[in-house]
Amino acid sequence: MDNSKHQSAWSKSIPVHEQMRIIWRLFAYAKPFKWYFFSSIIFAAGLSVVNIVLPKIIQVFMDDHLRVGDKDMRIMWFFAGLYFFGMLVKTIVQFSQTYLYEMGSEYMLEDTRKRLFKKLHTLGMRYFDQVPSGSILSRLTNDTMAFQSFWELFGNLMITVFSVGTSFVAMYMADRQIALALLVFMPFLMLVIWYYQRYSSRVYRGMREKLSELNAKLAEAITGISVIQQLRQEKRIDSEFDETNDQYFKTRKAMIRINSLLLSPIIDLLYSLGVILALTMFGVRGLDSVVPAGLIYAFVTYIDNFYNPMSRMMENLSFFQDGIVAGSRVLRIMDDKTYAPTQNADENAKVEFGKIEFKHVTFAYDGKNPILNDISFVVNPGQTLALVGETGSGKSSIINILMRFYEFQSGEILIDDRDIRTYPLAELRRKFGLVLQEPFMFYGTVASNIRMFNEKITDEQVKAAGEFVHADQFISSLEDGYDSKVIERGASYSSGQKQLISFARTVVTDPKVLILDEATANIDTETEQLIQKGLENISKNRTTVAIAHRLSTIQNADKIIVLEKGRIVEQGDNDTLLEKQGYYYDMIKLQNTAHENS
Fold first, then answer.
1. How open is the CA angle 23-28-32, to the nearest 5 degrees?
2. 13-18-21-23 Cα dihedral, nearest 10 degrees
3. For strand 543-547 and strand 384-389, is the pairing parallel, antiparallel, or unpaired?
4. Which site from 192, 393, 588, 591 is most exposed, i.e. has the minimal number of CB atoms within 10 Å?
5. pLDDT greater than 50 at residue 529
């Protein structure tokens, strides 16, 4: 099979004009810290001047004093002191240049990660449905770090430009003919740089893509470790990981191969050829006349200053390609338009009563294939609405658009007879309390997971919320009570305990609308009794919308809506729907039969 047909766009070479566009945009991220970089440039210029002066000191001492047999100790100590002072100045200038540039790069890295993290929190749920979490993590960590390394190249580039320029001027002033002769190697050097950029960009894009896939595999394997072990999928997961890891290794090997061939070895070769050429020309002259030893020393040192920074820059060309690819991936997130639904908000709009009304609402996740078709219903303040139906009937989709996680395509959703899009999103988040089937627990304590790190919520309010939903019974039995530790995802607590904490988390904010997404689906019968008591309490004086897994839990609902394939096929209270002996009646009968058989 021809793998090239299946090659990702990320594995292809980046055209030069595209590289220049990426570089230009990346400069915007350095702009807030420009004074660090400008100051570093000044010190880089000073460093190149010092590097020219130091060989000149030795040249003057050798040619004007040693060659003529001047044995005055004062002169020797003068030049030794002068050279030491020059080295001291060089150390200070080099430290200042490196420190300022590195600090500018670090500040820029910190700022870039903040921007990227903030951007991720503005993206809509659709983006996270489409992009693996491991890939996002790779861009936020690995790509931004490579992005920071990318700036090291520009630091070396500044030093190289000044050093090459001043070194050539010094060589030209020392011996015009030999200096011009050394330019014969420049076209070959430019050709190597051009070829390296052209070929390595493709290698680095492939490497970054495979690293992203590797992180995605790791995140998936760690997150789903219990399912993997339960279903004995270790061999399959290991095999898939080994395959991805092997592909990443191959791209790394290709990178090492091209770097080993085209970077510092080429510069070292050109440096050696330059020294050979210079010494040969000096040697030919020495056949007819005396060539000062100091001049030869200074000239060879200038050649070293000419090629040495180039060698460091060539080594960092790998960072250049890595940074270009990483920068393009970071910019791809920053340019993503998969935003959360926008609000045409009136800042004075408040949710006061909690009335909910859907008017002919149609919704599709991809904007093309409707999941909800012409949905209309009303829930008055304080009432409870239950949504029932088979998997894929559209229950969770109603919750998703009611919570403004996704934008609906047509129709109206009204809260207190007002378009939901006219409320500030913060107001909707404050007044809508969502309890999921599998609540997420954060590192911290039970109390911090209830107050969700909002320090305005007092300990008394946290405890009152726990008592209100009957979570206090198990929390008080813990060794440290509300200060008990919560590890990753609340692994040390049962599903029922986590759900009770989630109820307390919801009620502590005193929402007007309570939304339950199959909140009791995975709860044992004993814990469910506690949860039902908690639900009865938190549902009082609140509008409640509940997705029901166990139909026995919603028989007291004011209104029950039965969904099938994104449409409402029945609605009414429990007694009314049972009398119809339709969809709802069949569901009740089927669930009772399954319960009896179990």
1. 140
2. 10
3. parallel
4. 591
5. yes
Other beta carbons within 10 Å of 470: 21
Residue 568 has pLDDT above 70, yes or no: yes
Q: What does the pLDDT read at residue 5?
A: 41
pLDDT in tens, 530-566: 666 666 766 777 898 988 777 766 778 889 999 988 9
Instruction: Count CB-CB contacts under 10 A for residue 197.
Output: 17
CA angle, residues 587, 591, 596, in degrees to nearest 5: 150
Rounded to the nearest 10 degrees, what angle do helices 73-120 and 144-174 cross at?
150
Q: How far is CA 36 from CA 64, 162, 209, in A?
A: 42, 18, 33
Q: Which amino acid is at 348?
A: N
Residues 6 or more apart whose CB falls under 8 angstroms from that of 294 comprise 58, 59, 60, 61, 62, 63, 64, 66, 67
Hey, is 517 helix, strand or coil? strand
CB 116 within 8 A of CB 333: yes
Q: Looking at the predicted structure, is the pLDDT value of residue 141 above 50?
A: yes
In whole angstroms, give the CA distance from residue 119 to residue 129.
16
Neighbours of 501 (CB within 10 A): 25
pTM of the model: 0.65
